[in-house]
Design a protein that fits this description.
Blueprint lengths: L3 E4 L3 E2 L5 E7 L12 E7 L6 E7 L4 E4 L7 E6 L4 E6 L8 E8 L14 E2 L3 E5 L1
């Protein structure tokens, strides 16, 4: 069973920056041992959950939604079992609850939230 815990959400002015973190417990489930796809999703009130970015730990290939490309950067620190999302030039439309999630592979379906097996509880980002 893998547990994911997000942190770093806050209230920030438009144009500002935030870094979200997602710490993963040691994987004891063989289905996510080895290389995995780690993703960041967000959900604003009344809207569908959408994929923001993902990274495949096998080759560090990254994926981004068009709306955040060039502003957000996904990265990871294996030593700390932590996934990051650096968010720069934030806009009011970035306001949402942000979640990290994990599944076995990324590829073209990286943003398909229904395929992710493990989810964190979310961290709120508000851009004024």
């Amino acid at each position: 069973h893998v547990q994911l815990v997000e942190s770093g959400g806050d209230l920030v002015q438009a144009g500002g920056s935030l870094r979200l973190s997602c710490t993963a417990s040691k994987a004891t489930d063989s289905s996510v041992s080895g290389s995995v796809c780690m993703g960041w999703f967000r959900q604003a009130p009344g809207k569908e959950r959408e994929g923001v970015a993902a990274i495949y730990t096998g080759d560090d290939m990254t994926y981004y939604a068009g709306s955040v490309k060039g502003r957000f950067t996904i990265s990871r620190d294996d030593a700390k079992n932590t996934l990051y999302l650096q968010m720069n030039t934030l806009k009011p439309e970035d306001t949402a609850m942000y979640y990290c999630a994990a599944k076995t592979s990324c590829g073209s379906a990286w943003s398909s939230y229904g395929q992710y097996r493990y989810w964190g509880q979310g961290t709120q980002v508000t851009v004024s």
